[in-house]
Specification:
disordered N terminus; globular; 20 helices; mainly alpha
Length: about 425
């Protein structure tokens, strides 16, 4: 072995079989978590005209799509905060099972929805589990992996969201106008609970924190301590930038393709199917590479440096994608880059947020950051819906993309955690 290789062992050198198993379980939960969120995005073009009783090109379809996404974000916020603090108090294992059951059951019940209020209520309940599952799973990965592998493992965990989007895209294309059948697939994750119950053990860090006389998952301690409160609020705002731009910009790759195809004379139904493929498969493939790249970038540039690079390039790629491609082929070539930069920053949340809090507050703090960001992003989505009815799609997306610049400002006030142990 050379001197250089001895000094720089591979990042997974200290990772054992149990750690890989925990990553697989957490990733499977997140994979289905994302499927439950994306299936609405990929079927809303058929679901909303059905329940609203209007044509597919009616402006109310776009308006209610954004409003229901805002409802979903509010539900995710409540679920993330609720299940995050419960995971700190009662353990990661039981809350992971509870969140998976929550989003599975209510997604399956969407099959029976016949009115807008029913869809809204069920999307809210699905979001409770979706938001909670991320907080628990991201915390579990951060706590079981050694420091040398934590960033890479958390990046891999977040990147499995791509598989959920692909599954949703394939389901959306397969069912076509029969959107109800896509939601039946949402019941499948309930089987994952059996695996969780059989294999997951509570992390040693959490058991040690519980053995000490402390109030786990305490909001009073989180917001009563200046350091933790600052991390929670700034992290929440950073997540709000990422989530608002995801739901307001990233998923609009589908709309950009459909708009281009319809403008070129393609029938709307055909354009819809091709747009689902462009977003759900092509753009998401680029997004997956971005998610996988964030971990190595965070080890090289630091957490804040990786965020700064991604946010800057995300801001630049949006107007380029909106105005430069003029043909389907050109847009298909650009969409992977669009996904790489606008989606890639999300791995940073799974890496960074658990590093900001001690074990007794880790799931609570991470849940507040990521899912509180959903709540802050909800009014931005509502505004995005209004913008798309008043401005052209391209102008609306470019306007929303200025939120990436807000993320750059927030980084000035956040700490660098690269090379530091998890706080206790």
């Amino acid at each position: 072995m050379s001197a250089s290789s001895a000094r720089s062992p591979r990042w997974y050198a200290e990772v054992g079989a149990y750690e890989w198993l925990m990553l697989a379980i957490a990733s499977a939960g997140w994979f289905f978590d994302v499927f439950e969120g994306q299936i609405f995005n990929l079927t809303s073009g058929q679901l909303l005209p059905d329940v609203l009783g209007c044509a597919a090109d009616d402006p109310s379809v776009v308006l209610w799509r954004y409003r229901l996404l805002a409802v979903f974000l509010v539900g995710g916020t409540i679920g993330g905060v609720l299940f995050g603090t419960l995971a700190d108090r009662f353990g990661r294992k039981s809350m992971m099972s509870a969140t998976i059951l929550c989003y599975s059951i209510f997604s399956g019940l969407t099959y029976f929805a016949t009115s807008l209020w029913q869809v809204a209520a069920l999307r809210f309940l699905v979001a409770l589990g979706v938001g909670g599952e991320w907080a628990v799973a991201a915390t579990l990965v951060a706590e079981v992996f050694p420091a040398s592998a934590r960033a890479r493992a958390s990046g891999i965990f977040q990147a499995t969201s791509v598989l959920g989007t692909w599954m949703a895209a394939l389901a959306g294309m397969a069912v076509g106008a029969q959107w109800r059948y896509a939601y039946l697939l949402g019941i499948l994750p309930a089987l994952l609970v059996l695996w969780v119950r059989a294999k997951v053990e509570e992390p040693a860090r959490w058991r040690e924190a519980r053995s000490i006389d402390q109030q786990l998952g305490s909001f009073r301690e989180l917001f009563g301590n200046r350091r933790w409160a600052s991390h929670a609020i700034l992290g929440l705002l950073l997540a709000a930038v990422g989530l608002a731009t995801f739901w307001g910009v990233t998923i609009a790759g589908q709309d950009l393709m459909q708009h281009l195809l319809v403008r070129s004379g393609i029938e709307n139904a055909v354009a819809s199917q091709r747009a689902k493929f462009a977003y759900g498969i092509v753009e998401t493939a680029g997004g997956g590479l971005g998610l996988l790249s964030f971990g190595p970038l965070a080890e090289w540039l630091g957490r804040r440096g990786a965020f700064a690079l991604m946010l800057s390039l995300a801001f630049l790629i949006v107007p380029f994608t909106c105005y430069v491609p003029q043909t389907e082929t050109q847009l298909l070539c650009v969409l992977p880059f669009f996904g790489f930069f606008t989606l890639g920053i999300h791995s940073g949340f799974a890496i960074y947020f658990p590093e900001l809090f001690p074990s007794r507050l880790r799931a609570t703090g991470s849940g507040i950051c990521f899912n509180g960001g959903r709540l802050a992003a909800a009014p931005m989505l509502w505004l995005s819906g209004d913008l798309t009815t008043r401005l052209s799609l391209h102008k609306a997306l470019t306007a929303v993309a200025t939120l990436f610049l807000l993320g750059l400002v927030l980084l000035i006030f956040l700490p660098e955690t690269k090379g530091k142990p998890l706080p206790e």
